[in-house]
Sequence to fold (137 residues):
Amino acid sequence: MPDVTVTRRLQFNAAHRVHNPALSDEENSRLFGKCNNPNWHGHNYTLDVSVHGPVDQRTGYVVDLAVLKRVVEERVVDKIDHRNFNLDVDFMRGVIPTSENIIVAIWRELAPAIQPGRLARLVLWETPNNYVEYTGE
Ligand code: NI
Fold:
């Protein structure tokens, strides 16, 4: 059977402060700009979850996207939507909540739960102009 990559898009919003406690306030402000605002700020994030695998002969699917959506909601989105990355999210504890660190943390939560197929790629949009992608390497 041919292998195909399928993608489900999900949206959530969350607050954060990008801040490294090991650096001075001036350095944090210079490095992180608006995202260093002491009283938090939010983003409307978009997350694309791609799964790669063989097309099942019986269903014609790689994976049922409704099932994939439920798994992503349970493992990730329900834990971060309308939350604060710095304060509320167990799998982000002690991590500076840049998009880079968020996407790696989401991968670790999600990859073991994906089947059939395998998690092939995540794309996380923080704004309509900025996104990061990760393939688990
Ligand atoms: Ni920000």
